[in-house]
């Protein structure tokens, strides 16, 4: 039987599944084609921070998109949990972005300034106020930006909830089905080919994370991906040591509702392997224990890694690609969990023709680099 759909999505990560959920809610006959299992890659490796204010350092359309996505979770999560039956451990427990040098403190004060001007809540905590709020934070800390509105979820569970929700609303999922090529006719996409046969649709969304540019076709220009491997670990203290998520310039601690703490994460550009090295674990642990010595006696749990999908200018690719009917939804780099809520809705809006934010259309266009609009510089949002 010919497998034909209104929309085909390549990749069952958090973003592919969120898009499937939003499309299925709109009654669109959708399928997700996944080379491995749903959530097999970055989306299950993430620490789950919804860090719109903590991760994005400057004002602009990306900050705007990120905070709108973050703000969707308070309504989306109850709806998704009810539809899917999967709890995603959503918390809006705030984040502390700590400064360990005077220079970092002055950067954080600039961030505080622009975020307040944009109407967001952000408060400064000097060393004393910080030790009242989080008495277990020790070491050389010059102060911290407190962001009450940023929160967290469990990333793996969120991905599964989008997928189950989409499936219960009628979407089909094909796991262990790698897409090996796009089917096209007269400049229009017609479907995808896989070892299990062809799937047909006039709308295809490429949401393959760091692997998106490996679907090669000499007639179609898929903009390049930059893989950035990240390693994480988890420990469990006997009793809670921090209440808020704590974000330092090159590591973070995310206290989860089950009592565990995720400590992340390394950044290794160009790496797509899944090894976790002893040196990375030592490095992350020693920085975390210097900042929160109370973690010394915490029980060791596990370590893991994943590959973040970055782009060459640091902005995600969200929009129409260089073939009619082909869309891209990838390049979320460090913030794919945070951005998943709005990515799902935005791509569904683009496909059904109701997307109306011209600034986002231009900023996130996958064609921007080809047209010379991107910076082609490295960024670290
Ligand atoms: P992926 O999850 O990588 O999914 C892409 C999917 O496409 C994969 O399942 C893959 O198998 C499939 N695929 C690829 N090619 C094909 C093909 N040819 N055919 C079929 N299927 C294909 N983000 C946050 O917002 N908050 C965090 O706290 C956070 N922490 C992180 C910590 C670490 C250590 C890492 C590594 C990342 C973290 N991120 C975080 C980033 C986040 O994980 C990613 O941005 C996000 O998961 C990307 O989701 P995705 O769906 O685009 O890609
Ligand atoms: N956003 C956290 C990370 O990518 O490690």
CATH superfamily of the largest domain, called what?
Answer: FAD/NAD(P)-binding domain
Number of strands: 21
Computed structural class: alpha/beta
Bound molecules: flavin-adenine dinucleotide, glycine
Major beta sheet summary: 9 strands, mixed
What general form does the structure show? globular
Overall domain count: 2
Name the CATH architecture of the largest domain.
3-Layer(bba) Sandwich
Q: What name does the CATH topology of the largest domain carry?
A: FAD/NAD(P)-binding domain
**Mean of residue pLDDT values:** 94
End-to-end gap? 46 Å
CA radius of gyration is 21 Å
The helix fraction, in percent, is 25-40%
Strand content: 25-35%
Topology of helices and strands:
Elements lengths: L2 E2 L2 E4 L3 H12 L4 E4 L8 H4 L3 E2 L1 H4 L5 H24 L10 E5 L2 H16 L5 E3 L1 H7 L9 E5 L3 E2 L2 H14 L3 E3 L6 E5 L2 E7 L2 E4 L3 E3 L19 E11 L8 E4 L2 E5 L5 E4 L3 E2 L8 H14 L7 E12 L6 E4 L5 E5 L5 H17 L5 H6 L18
The protein binds flavin-adenine dinucleotide and glycine (GLY).
Task: Describe, in plain words, how this protein is organized in 3D.
The chain is of the alpha/beta class. The chain has 2 domains: 3-84 and 155-224 and 312-363, FAD/NAD(P)-binding domain (3-Layer(bba) Sandwich), CATH 3.50.50; 95-147 and 226-309, D-Amino Acid Oxidase, subunit A, domain 2 (D-Amino Acid Oxidase, Chain A, domain 2, 2-Layer Sandwich). 31% of the residues lie in helices and 25% in strands. It has 10 helices and 21 strands. The strands form 4 sheets. Strands 5, 6, 7, 14, 15, 16, 17, 18 and 19 form a 9-stranded mixed sheet that branches. A 6-stranded mixed sheet has the order 9-3-2-13-21-20, with helices on one face. Strand 15 (245-248) and strand 16 form a beta hairpin. Helix 4 (61-84) packs across helix 9. The radius of gyration is 21 Å and the shape is globular. It starts with a strand and ends in an 18-residue tail after the last helix. Residues 372-381 have low confidence and may be disordered. Residues 10-16, 33-36, 40-43, 45-49, 178-179, 207-211, 215, 230, 232, 264-265, 306, 308-309, 330, 332-338 line the site of flavin-adenine dinucleotide.
